[in-house]
Amino acid sequence: MTTTLSISNPATGTLIAELPADDAASVATKVGRARAAQPAWAARPLAERKAAIVRFRAQVVAELETLAATLTAEVGKPIAQSRNELNGFLARIDFFVAEVEASTADENVFAGAGMTERIGHEPLGVVANISAWNYPYFVGGNVFVPALLTGNAVLYKPSEFATLTGLHIDRLLHACGVPDDAFITVVGAGAVGAALVGQQVDGVFFTGSAATGERIAVAVGPRMIRLQLELGGKDPTYVADDADPKAAAESLADGAMYNTGQSCCSVERIYVHERIHDAFVAAFLDTVAGFRIGDPAADGTYIGAITRSPQIGVLEEQVADALARGAELRTGGKRIDKVGNWFEPTVFTGVNHDMLLMREESFGPIIGIQKVKGDDEALALMNDTRYGLTAGMFTRDEARAAKLLSKVNAGSVYWNCCDRVSPRLPWSGHGDSGVGVTLSRYGIQTFTRPKAWHLRKP
């Protein structure tokens, strides 16, 4: 009996496609193919691997509108934001292509008395890439692009909510010179991902929830292979008393609601100094009121659909809990009564850390704003979390920001900005936000093993 995967549009509930899905046996076969193909791919000159990725980039540009439309249809992302993701993906490709040679070049670290010490880099081998639906080009490309450039074979499992996008990536890579068995797409839901994790691969790279990441860590741990987990966050920002409340509100409203709040580094908690709290809240509400909710395929839409229907239940639970514990609902607070998965942009004030809204990842267009007396209270609240992905501060005083942000438990920190990722900077997390690193030169080297060479002349 053939297993199928159904793809539906979350904005309309319409069935888009039904695809044949993998099972444990087909996953094992695909891993075997990748294992057999990897040495030949790694043996190709780096210039050839780079050329294939450059051709892939050109095809992304050529088909950008088609790719954006597919992404919007299957995840509910507003079309302008789908285009933004694809254009941002191009810059990441450019970075990886430009930096891979220097990042993985042999390095002589000592020479003397007839002895040379050298560091080399070898590919891991076969990499399992279990990707996410919210930014499939960013999240997937952070893995498969440097993995392929450094000579690995990749088993790529797109999220079941972004599989059509994953198949576009597969098609374009193969058309541009990456061998069929050096990049293989695995299709299916959670059980297929688990089957892939259970195979004898040389690295597992996962992006998703902390709960799933924990299960993968337990499964992979005894095998002593490379494991990278890019998980969730409950990302805080503090707005100090010397900040411009309107400018901060406009930036943070976008940081909280962009991609309908479905970003790993969305702003999820805001702490505002009591002196400017009311002005900030007024400006924040004005900004949110201007966000257009509607058809994700329409150019002017800012708030799209919730990709996964169960997430609406999570948002409803957080709303009910906040109201029961005394928070003030300032706007939104409920699902939108229309076909598909829709939820109103929602803002609470008068919140505290007894509430789920301020403790558990929301992953939707909802935010809590808490009044604080000063920097010390803000810092304590920012660090009162099991997560540690990003954190930020708005203030006119750079030294003040540096002092506070240096004490925040987060892999990335922001001064007067938020919800930003750069290919030049490492992306990592503390606590339940994960282990390992993507992006930057470190994110290229993570797909290699260093080899120590001790060379004595005869």
Architecture blueprint of SSEs:
Elements: E1 4-8, E2 15-20, H1 24-43, H2 46-62, H3 64-75, H4 79-104, E3 107-112, E4 115-123, E5 126-130, H5 136-149, E6 153-157, H6 163-175, E7 183-185, H7 190-197, E8 203-207, H8 210-220, E9 226-230, E10 235-239, H9 245-257, E11 267-273, H10 277-289, H11 310-324, E12 328-331, E13 346-349, E14 366-372, H12 375-382, E15 387-388, E16 390-394, H13 398-405, E17 412-415, E18 430-431, E19 434-435, H14 440-445, E20 448-456
Parallel strand pairs: 5-6, 5-8, 6-7, 8-9, 10-11, 10-16, 11-14, 13-14, 16-17
Antiparallel strand pairs: 1-2, 3-4, 4-20, 9-19, 12-13, 15-18
Query: What is the terminal-to-terminal distance?
Result: 64 Å
Residues in helix, %: 40-55%
Q: Biggest β-sheet, characterized?
A: 7 strands, mixed
Give the beta-strand count.
20
Give the overall shape, derived from the CA principal axes.
globular
Catalogue the unreliable spans.
none
Count of individual helical segments: 14
Beta-sheet strand percentage?
A: 15-25%
What does this structure look like?
The protein is α/β, with parallel strands linked by helices. The chain has 14 helices and 20 strands. The chain has helices at residues 24-43, 46-62, 64-75, 79-104, 136-149, 163-175, 190-197, 210-220, 245-257, 277-289, 310-324, 375-382, 398-405, 440-445, and strands at residues 4-8, 15-20, 107-112, 115-123, 126-130, 153-157, 183-185, 203-207, 226-230, 235-239, 267-273, 328-331, 346-349, 366-372, 387-388, 390-394, 412-415, 430-431, 434-435, 448-456. It has a seven-stranded mixed β-sheet with strand order 12-13-14-11-10-16-17, sandwiched between helices. Helix 1 crosses helix 7, helix 2 (46-62) packs antiparallel against helix 4 and helix 3 (64-75) runs antiparallel to helix 6 (163-175). The longest helix has 26 residues, at 79-104. The radius of gyration is 23 Å and the shape is globular. The chain starts with a strand and ends with a strand. 50% of the residues are buried. The mean pLDDT is 97.
